[in-house]
Design goal:
- By secondary structure, the chain is an all-beta fold.
- It has no helices and eleven strands.
- Strands 2, 4, 5, 6, 9, 10 and 11 form a seven-stranded mixed beta sheet that branches. It has a four-stranded antiparallel beta sheet with strand order 1-3-8-7, with no helix packed on it.
- A hairpin with a 5-residue loop joins strand 5 and strand 6 (57-59).
- The termini are far apart.
């Protein structure tokens, strides 16, 4: 079955950086769009960034210029490089593909 495993979350100060990873198995990874979502405390899960099978990327306005999504098809892994982090970036980050979610990784940005 399809499995997604996120890693790389943690506690960082405002202005810091983190790189999240999402390892995918059980599908032909190179043919699938993969997306990162964020769920802040008490809020809905919202789309942050996505990357298509061809490498096209899309970002929510609040992270443009700060976050970069990329993929390594040889490793079946998608990354989310997060720079200039802000307290409002705090939340659980999930990756998703083919309607399957990972377990999430916590990102906390302290002010």
């Amino acid at each position: 079955q399809v499995q997604l495993v996120e890693s790389g979350g943690g506690l960082v100060q405002t202005g810091g950086s983190l790189r999240l990873s999402c390892a995918v198995s059980g599908i032909i990874f190179s043919t699938k769009t993969v997306a990162w979502y964020r769920q802040a405390p008490g809020k809905e899960r919202d789309l942050v960034a996505s990357i298509s099978s061809g490498g096209s990327t899309d970002y929510v306005d609040s992270v443009k210029g700060r976050f970069t999504i990329s993929r390594d098809n040889a490793k079946s892994t998608v990354y989310l490089q997060m720079n200039s982090l802000k307290p409002e970036d705090t939340g659980v980050y999930y990756c998703k593909t083919v309607r399957v979610w990972g377990q999430g990784t916590q990102v906390t940005v302290s002010s």
